[in-house]
């Protein structure tokens, strides 16, 4: 590919370059999965040399950590809007809102699995802090909505959110194996159970957890 990249000379141009890099990474990850994407591939997609890209992002992990923060900013208001629309909120309907809004964001689910595994491990402390503050802010906003809509305590609401996001990340990896493993599952009927339905599994887990919490609250224990 011919290198058509020109170095940004202004704050506005630098911001545009960063957005271009993030959008390229987003597209590639959506197509191939985060694990498969390299800095070189991201750079080539936008006609930039890898060394030039490193002027904007220190590592590939930083790029995807920024995208994870954006994912929280996108998912949280969508979930809160979905929770607000439920006429009679209960364990089942709330769990369905969680599952539906997460499964609608496959890249976010993929990112959720990779954040604790590697995206926080090859970036500066300042970048990790920025991401954590975004996540904490959105968790607090969702937790407040759960408290008001279904009667969970703040600690219980946070546990529901943590369970939903961690399970969404893990289940998504199970549901989207690589091509060789996917072929193995197709050829071996005994292994077919390994590919899970993420949405239904999330609903089952989250509704069960919320039902238990609400029963506990009614008993005052």
Task: Describe the structure concisely.
With 221 residues, the protein is mainly alpha-helical. The protein has helices at residues 11-32, 39-45, 50-53, 60-85, 91-103, 106-119, 125-150, 154-175, 179-187, 198-219.
How would you describe the overall organization of this protein?
- The chain has 10 helices and no strands.
- It starts with 10 loop residues before the first helix and ends with a helix.
- It is globular.
- The longest helix has 26 residues, at 60-85.
- With 221 residues, it is mostly helical.
- α8 (154-175) runs antiparallel to α10.
Mean pLDDT: 91
Number of helices: 10
Q: In this structure, how is the largest beta sheet organized?
A: none
Question: What pattern of helices and strands is seen along the backbone?
Answer: HHHHHHHHHH
Instruction: Evaluate the radius of gyration.
Output: 20 Å
Could you list the spans in which at least 5 consecutive residues all have pLDDT below 50?
1-5
Number of strands: 0
């Amino acid at each position: 590919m011919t290198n058509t990249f020109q170095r940004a000379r202004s704050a506005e141009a630098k911001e545009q370059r960063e957005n271009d890099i993030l959008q390229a990474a987003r597209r590639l990850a959506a197509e191939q999965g985060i694990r498969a994407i390299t800095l070189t591939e991201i750079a080539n997609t936008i006609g930039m040399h890898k060394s030039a890209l490193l002027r904007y992002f220190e590592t590939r992990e930083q790029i995807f950590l920024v995208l994870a923060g954006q994912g929280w900013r996108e998912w949280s208001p969508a979930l809160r809007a979905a929770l607000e629309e439920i006429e009679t909120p209960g364990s089942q309907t709330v769990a369905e809102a969680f599952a539906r809004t997460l499964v609608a964001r496959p890249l976010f689910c993929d990112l959720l699995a990779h954040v604790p595994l590697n995206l926080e491990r090859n970036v500066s402390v300042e970048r990790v802090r920025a991401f954590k503050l975004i996540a904490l802010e959105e968790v607090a906003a969702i937790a407040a909505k759960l408290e008001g809509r279904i009667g969970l305590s703040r600690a219980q609401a946070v546990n529901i959110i943590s369970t939903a996001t961690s399970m969404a990340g893990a289940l998504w990896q199970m549901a989207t194996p690589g091509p060789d493993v996917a072929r193995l599952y197709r050829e071996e009927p005994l292994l077919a159970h390994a590919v899970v339905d993420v949405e239904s599994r999330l609903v089952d887990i989250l509704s069960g957890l919320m039902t238990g919490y609400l029963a506990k609250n009614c008993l005052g224990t």
